[in-house]
Amino acid sequence: MQTAVIVFPASNCDRDAAMALEKVTGKAPKMIWHRDSEIPSDVDFVCIPGGFSYGDYLRSGAMASCSPIVADLVEKANKGLAVAGFCNGFQILTETGLLPGALMRNKNLKFVCRPERLVVNNANTRYTSQYEAKSIVTYPVAHHDGSYFADDAVLNKLEKEGRIVFRYADNPNGSLRDIAGIVNEAGNVFGMMPHPERAVDELHGGTDGLGLFKSIIESI
User: Which of 37, 148, 165, 181 has its CA 20 to 30 A from that of 190?
Assistant: First the structure.
């Protein structure tokens, strides 16, 4: 199988994502520049990495959502391509409309950077099948605009359809209903603010993130 990582100006977790994917698949992902116009046809999974695309001008992820490659990403995601966005990648996915809601300024108005405990709220997704339901994992977080917001109708729909995939055990940013990660209706597009790609090596503090990458790779 073939994976890919999209790289934007000021992405800073693209290498982390690439290393995580290579560790799980044994094959280096394709690195796709944001000004490219098409995702190669042999790509089975696309990761949108964390960072500060375009310096977070206007609002986080807004300018990146208008990059040339994103139009093709949206088209292919709507046809079933597996896509995951972490941190800034999650922000970009909400800006494109591939995922509902928005990521707002943290409730305490401070940048938060630390390991964070998460509850696997739904283990029956293609991104969490390697975990036990309601198990606790630890991923790093590093964001200033990570508070998930949506209106009650959207939140209730996410709850009802089991699309809240991860919740914070100790909410660090004020996200409504402790939401850390969600999936779209079709189940192929996933976004979360924490960084599973930074939790794949014991030397970096733990390997809890490997389950997420193994889950999606084995589902394709």
Answer: 37
